[in-house]
Amino acid sequence: MREVAISVVIPVKNGQRYLDEVLKAIFSQEIKREFEVVIVDSGSTDRTLDIIGQYPVRFYQIKENEFNHGLTRNLGISKAQGKYIILLTADAIAYDQCWMRKLIEHLERDSRVAGSYSRQIPHKDSQPLSRIRVKNSLTFSKERRESQIKKKEDYFALSPEEKRRFCNFDNVSSCLRKEVWKKVPFPKTDFAEDLEWSKAVIEAGHKIIYEPESIVYHSHDFSLPEWYRKNRINYKTLYTLFGIEVINNFSQLIKFFFISTLWDIYYLCKDARGGKAILSNIWLIPLHSLWRALGHYRGVNEAKKR
User: Fold this and answer.
1) In a domain, 266, yes or no
2) Any alpha helices (H) in the chain, and if so which ranges?
3) Pairing of strands 145-147, 93-94
């Protein structure tokens, strides 16, 4: 048997909705290198374990309260045999049979590359507002990006938002070099372990690549409470890592709300599949914008109190 070169590590909990498609797409990849799949489950109570049992994977279980975005991924990587570690969420489905090959090729060609990450497109069954979120994200771009510090003074002169874009990385679908991970493992954190790791390895002199030809389907249909929580945690993290703060008073909150609402209405009209989709979703936009603004404001203020 050939040596395992690539390990696909998937943390999962109650992932029955997409997991079968995720695994089927992995084992359909056209790649000459030997690979394995390592799954870490944190207390699934649906059909997840039955689905896992249908595939030739290595499987580990932890308790629900032991899950941590950084530490659980570290556990999976520590069990992996490959020198290239692909991290994938249990709801990210490879778009084609080239996803894996395109994701690892930069690490194979260039020893300076610590990690690469994929382009994301919305699930086919996603709601209109979910498609808007994906299409307005950094991981929807069709343009390849390379991040490596050439001059430290140029890097530290970047604005908070520019620095955040420069350090972007996304473990929805990513690949990292295990030797680099051994020196810089993921931090213990409840959110954005990928972004914190990328910032650390870039500042240590490594290179990160965004590869738009490696594509996965991935999107979330958030409820309003989930959307608020995501934005609160997200902006808390962005302030902690980069000092990003768009809203720091009531007037800025109102401005953010109106601008966000107008842009989302524009994108909905541009994206929606017919007038019925517009009418059934347009009333949700102000609510989503309000919860996003409140989440931003609350998250930044929580970060400041640390």
Assistant:
1) yes
2) 19-26, 48-52, 69-79, 99-109, 128-135, 152-156, 160-166, 178-183, 193-203, 224-242, 250-271, 275-281, 284-304
3) unpaired
Environment class of 3 (CB within 10 Å of its CB; exposed 0-12, middle 13-18, buried 19+): exposed
User: Residue 282: which residues within 8 A CB-CB, separation 6 or more?
Assistant: 265, 268
Residue 246: give the domain boundaries: 224-304
Single-letter amino acid code for the residue at 260: S
CA distance 173 to 72: 16
pTM higher than 0.85: yes
Query: Are residues 54 and 165 both part of a single domain?
Result: yes
Q: Are 216 and 134 in contact (CB under 8 A)?
A: no
Mean pLDDT for the stretch of residues 63-85: 97
In this structure, what token pair is assigned to residue 143?
Answer: 């343009």
Distance from C-alpha of 243 to C-alpha of 300, rounded to nearest angstrom: 9
Does 39 reside within a domain?
yes
> What one-letter code names the amino acid at 297?
Y
- 181-221 pLDDT tens trace: 999 999 999 899 999 999 999 999 999 999 999 999 999 99
> Cα(113)–Cα(179) distance, rounded to whole angstroms?
11
Mean pLDDT of 46-52: 98
Pick the last residue of a domain from 217, 235, 251. 217
- How far is it, in rounded angstroms, from Cα 66 to Cα 53? 22
**Do residues 72 and 42 lie in contact, with contact meaning Cβ atoms separated by under 8 Å?**
yes
